[in-house]
Amino acid sequence: MLSEASNGGEPARPPYDLLIVGGGINGAGIARDAVGRGASVLLVEQHDLASHTSSASTKLIHGGLRYLEYYEFRLVREALIERERLLRIAPHIIWPLSFVLPHSRLVRPAWMLRLGLFLYDHLGGRMTLPRSRGVRLDRDPLGVPLQPAFKRGFVYSDGWVQDSRLVVLNAMDARTRGADIRTRTTLVDARRVDGLWQATLADAAGGTRTVRARALVNAAGPWVGSMLRDRLGIATTKQVRLVKGSHIVVPRQFEGEQAYIFQNPDKRIVFAIPYERQFTLIGTTDLPWTADPGQVEISAEEIRYLCDSVNRYLRSPVSPADVVWSYAGVRPLYDDAARNASAVTRDYVLDVDVAAGAHPADAAPLLSIFGGKITTYRRLAEHALEKLAPFLPILKGSGWTAGRALPGGDLGPGGFDAALARLRKDAPFLSAEESWRLVRNYGSRAWTIIGDARGPADLGESFGGGLTAREVEYLVRQEWAVTAEDILWRRSRLGLHVTDEDVARLDRYLRDRQRDAAPEDRREPCPAGVALAG
Ligand SMILES: Cc1cc2nc3c(=O)[nH]c(=O)nc-3n(C[C@H](O)[C@H](O)[C@H](O)COP(=O)(O)OP(=O)(O)OC[C@H]3O[C@@H](n4cnc5c(N)ncnc54)[C@H](O)[C@@H]3O)c2cc1C
């Protein structure tokens, strides 16, 4: 039950320091940082955590090589520094990935790529990832999947992230430190009353509550503008620019762990990335979006465009008929009036609105987030709290999140490989692949899932793809999972590995579990129609 100001005679609780609207990466990152500084925090997410843009990304922890062309040096430098930090604090769900960039004379000259990569290697300072290098694609195995016309290229490094899990881990850590995280809870509206924010929240069961907070954070992603206008009644000169991006997933197109970055004649780039062992992920597009961000989906033209983009380079062509899955998301970019969608800045802008003429202690600040990247979420959170600190002294002080592992990220000496070897020894009844998946998803928490199990039977019912009742229980109890979609497409990507019968069985299990649960443990599933990004 939500804590409230005045709800049908129930006692009023003291106001929260921070009410955060939006359980994407930015909301979750701010919640974690703020609660760790001692603030009382309530985060509300209308659907599931990461159910929108933060599960629909290309999943790169990257500086953004192409942003150098737009002179976004500040952003690239910050992102490169963050890349190193995130690889350290979440080594289970974030890992290095090397990229092969074939040289195509028709798009950019080799000297330009060399210069860009030189900057990329040096802008972020000390880096643990391998530096970029040239490669003879006509002689190196990395060139095998490519058409013979591509003889030269470059190899550089970035990071890969399980995007929706990064959101959940930030929310979990925030909860452990005392934050109240409410999924399937919508902020209906909020107004300034006596120097505080007073907000109406609605849960999926139809209940409403009023809560109070000293400051409000609008981390609503693609809804940042409509939140200001329609729910908060606040005018701002800052605008969000919605830019759709889509991806396709096809059966694996090439051997090896490396990804490819292909330059298009329109100057855009498209990635082809090994995905979920048996697949290749291809994306993305950049298209203006004006409709409801909750209804975004890939179009036939985008599928064609993505196939054409990789077919200029790959030896064996990909066709729309090969697509096994696709997803689309909306980038909530800060509108810098750029002419085309690819050129709009990927940097973020934080806007603070305060009650006119009020003393800082009664200013009831509202901070709205425009733009941003998954890669820069942690730094964005620090900047957001710096902006709020003059009004909320509890937030003062230096950031603490750069050096603290996210849940499961404390893999111990030897990192991922050693943790995997330990799990193989401790749970020999798991296949090599199952152990790998558990450590990749949960890190040191894999042992919490396995618990006292001594054999496969102890893990309970099996739902395909290695998913067992033990893991489902963990996801429901620890990670706010409610529906099969939460589990198969956001807590994991097992949706790609299970059959329709598996999904039906999981649905049934969750329904039965819900029916038999004590009333206080019941959670309402997402309303129909919010199944997206997957
Ligand atoms: C195609 C694509 C590729 C990308 N690739 C990368 C990449 O490779 N690397 C990278 O670093 N970044 C990438 N990004 C950018 C990154 O995904 C986004 O910047 C980031 O996910 C935005 O997070 P957010 O928290 O602002 O928004 P969201 O994740 O959309 O979260 C906002 C949340 O607010 C909730 N909300 C809205 N209104 C309400 C309300 N009234 N009450 C309660 N909750 C509400 C929504 O339900 C939503 O879950 C990509 C983006 C796209 C679209």
Automatic annotation (TrEMBL):
GO biological process terms held by the UniProt record: glycerol-3-phosphate catabolic process
EC numbers: 1.1.5.3
A GO-annotated cellular component: glycerol-3-phosphate dehydrogenase (FAD) complex
Gene Ontology molecular function: any one: glycerol-3-phosphate dehydrogenase (quinone) activity
Keywords for the protein's UniProt record, in alphabetical order: FAD, Flavoprotein, Oxidoreductase
Record domain Alpha-glycerophosphate oxidase C-terminal: where: 401-506
Domain of life: Bacteria
Matching PROSITE patterns: FAD_G3PDH_1, FAD_G3PDH_2
Catalytic activity of the protein: a quinone + sn-glycerol 3-phosphate = dihydroxyacetone phosphate + a quinol
Pfam families listed in its UniProt record: DAO, DAO_C
Region (Disordered): 514-534
Cofactor: FAD
Domain FAD dependent oxidoreductase, residue spans: 17-337
Compositionally skewed regions (Basic and acidic residues) per UniProt: 514-525
NCBIfam families with a match to the protein in the record: PRK12266.1, PRK13369.1
Family designation: Belongs to the FAD-dependent glycerol-3-phosphate dehydrogenase family.
Protein's UniProt name: Glycerol-3-phosphate dehydrogenase
